Amino acid sequence: MAQYGAIDASEADVVFAALADPTRRAVIARLGRGDAGVSALATGFDMALPSFLKHVRALERAGLVTTVKRGRVRTCRLDRARLAVVDGWLAEQRAIWERRTDRLEAFLADEATASTSADAANRPANVSTRPGPAKDQKETHDER
């Protein structure tokens, strides 16, 4: 079983699979504003309630949502702590890519320094790097 640092890969897979669906991401976004009943959540989607409940169950299996039934109303609540799996995985990926870009930046800086040094070493000693007229051209000055 692969590990992402302290994050179990199978845990991350379950959470990312649940978040792969746009309907489920929209439910998570809505629950981020507070608890809501299943019927209230379902009104924003063009699907039958039983189909919507499948999405809620997928979020429950992933541990992202908990539901409580009181009477005839099933209320959904976001488990914000479970989103730490996503946050942890993203932090690890960010660190990996920052190290890679830092190494690339250092490599390019070394290449630029080596290129500048090589150009200076290959330049004839009597050639100036300062801009000015060529040796064949005479400088003319207005002397008044």
Automatic annotation (TrEMBL):
Range of residues in the leader sequence: none
Alphabetized InterPro entries for the sequence: ArsR-like_HTH, HTH_ArsR_DNA-bd_dom, WH-like_DNA-bd_sf, WH_DNA-bd_sf
Transmembrane segments annotated in the record for this chain: none
Domain of life: Bacteria
Region Disordered, annotated ranges: 115-144
Compositional bias of kind Basic and acidic residues: 133-144
Domain HTH arsR-type residues, every copy: 4-98
GO molecular function: DNA-binding transcription factor activity
CDD domains per the UniProt record, alphabetical: HTH_ARSR (cd00090)
Entry protein name: Helix-turn-helix transcriptional regulator
Lineage: Bacteria, Bacillati, Actinomycetota, Actinomycetes, Micrococcales
